[in-house]
Amino acid sequence: MTINIPTAKLTTSFQHDDDSIWIGIDFGTTHCSVAVYDATRGGPKWMRLASAIPERRKQGRIVPTQLGVRKNVTKSEDTERFCDDLKEKCIIGYPAWKRLHEAGNNRHDNSSDYCFIPNLKRNFAQDPQGAYSDDYCTLKWIDAVALVLQRLRLEADDYIRLHASKKHLQTPGNGSCRNVVLGVPARYTSLQRHGMMEAAKRAGFTGHVSTVTESTAAAMAYGLFVGKRAVKTQDLAEERGGTRILVFDMGGGTTDITVALLHPPHRRDTRESTYRDDPSSRFQVETTRGDGQLGGDDMDEAILRYLVQRDQTEFTDEDPIQKRPFLRACQQAKEALTGNESTTIQWQGSSMSLTRAELDSCIAPLLHRARSVLDQALSSDAPIHEVVLIGGATRVPALRRMLRDAFPHIDELSTAVHPVSAVAQGCAIQAAWLSRKIPPHALESALMLDTTPYPLGVLQSMNADIVLRGSPQQIIAFDPNQHVFCELIPRDSPLPAMGSMLFDVAKAQQAGVTVLAVEYVPEEELFVVLNEFSFLLRRIKADQTTPVQRQVEVGMKLTEHGEVIVSVFDSNDPDHVRARGFDNAVEESITLEQWLLGMSCVILFVLYVVVKLNFSSGGMDAIAEEL
């Protein structure tokens, strides 16, 4: 098959802003949270923000993911200027949530000056480059996300500025918040992850911007707060080869699972990695799985459909103003049934009862999907020693019962970390590590790297005369009769991940090769184009013996920051051979230098001992003569 390949890389511009503060953000389906690492307290600080739901006359920590845009606003091409005009054009968080529900309670009130963007995170995930449009407003999803992220950034600035001296906060960096780590669902592709990072840049995060899987971030929070307890049970961990932890995160709209292994000190992974090079790194992420359309909101929808069908209630999904308060009442009933056997729903003057058994029945299909995701994460036979619950939906008794049935050998499901703040706090821990402003030993029990959510490789055509081409973030539907996917980096590979493969070149004398680097999403049978890379090949001289079949080696690397690097090695190119030989020589010279340094230290130590013994012997002889 014909391929064409140059050394190139696909990356978002990652700047390292040394003077700005690093924070972590959990951009959830229903709520958002922001945290920053506080070196004074040795852990992440969950921040109180002005847009959060108030808590007993104080600012809250949970910000509803709700955006209202003033009607008839024309979106300018200058996104940054548009975002800077928040007070006049947008309401975000609790103010938007409150006005939205007030409008829902009075279904005849159409006097609101704002149009409210529905299901922001889910709609963005379905089409990051798409837009919301109605009779009053047109706004790109990525800009809508940017508006919410900018409000979170500005309010985080205000919180840190107000409490830096009052609460003695010692944050990674100074000034304003310009660096961020965002939590994203496990099912997010590179297209969706880069969309979130682009939204963050439009929101004013001009420094480092990266993402981490939400359940992996929660595992980091668990590792920091509970990791020291694992040290006390070190003997037990050594007997079973480490403690394997499963983090089950079900929020409002997504379900994510991370399986991580806590190594005993003498069994830590020493493979090449930013974290694993540090002797305190003890966690290794083994797998991540998720469902991007499964969460607490889906349970509310299931309850609503059940009640409408049971009581023959006059209701239509086409009326969002009517549906909104009904869904809210279903959510309150779900929350009430976590501690009661029955509850009553008041809606439009009528009273409807709902029991826990009925709740279990109507959400049973959702629990079956959750069990399917769990089984995918447990594809190996490795035992699970602890299950950590994250997310508000994990409070549902039926869900916990399903997890207990899946792990009968575990006495109790762990709720050691806060189910709502864990993701934001884990993102803050990741940000603190990336900032290099916090001593590594302070994060020793939480250091871990994410894994690749999907396999990466090269997409080729079945027809050798056709060279596949594509643009970054393009979606290609898989056709087994036309496409051949060559996997270079398997799924769940620890970051940074590398892989390579030999490819036959169609013609020995061809001028170059083109590689279409893709990410394969097997659940949806589609490819996300990372980029198209073209490389020149060295022409073989006429007097040179032409090989029967010319081959090139294509290499691919995915860094911990999401940077994709593609390279090619041609054994017929002296420059390639020389470069590879130089790299090997450098590695060998480093090994030789280390050996010489070690021998020098041994010689110096021997000389020191000899001199000291001679000096001690001479001193004893002098004392003997005086006596």
TrEMBL record:
Which stretches does the entry tag as region Disordered?
267-295
Q: What is this protein called?
A: Uncharacterized protein
Q: Where is the composition biased (Basic and acidic residues)?
A: 267-280
Instruction: State the Pfam families in the record.
Output: HSP70
Q: Which SUPFAM superfamilies match?
A: Actin-like ATPase domain
Give the source's domain of life in one word. Answer: Eukaryota
Name the keywords, alphabetized.
ATP-binding, Nucleotide-binding
Query: What transmembrane ranges does the database entry give?
Result: none
One annotated GO molecular function is: ATP binding
Q: InterPro entries recorded for this chain?
A: ATPase_NBD (IPR043129), Heat_shock_70_CS (IPR018181), HSP70_peptide-bd_sf (IPR029047), Hsp_70_fam (IPR013126)
Keyword Nucleotide-binding appears in the UniProt entry: yes
Output the Gene3D superfamilies linked to this UniProt entry: 3.30.420.40, Actin, Chain A, domain 4, Substrate Binding Domain Of DNAk, Chain A, domain 1
Q: Which family does it belong to?
A: Belongs to the heat shock protein 70 family.
Annotated organism of origin:
Fistulifera solaris
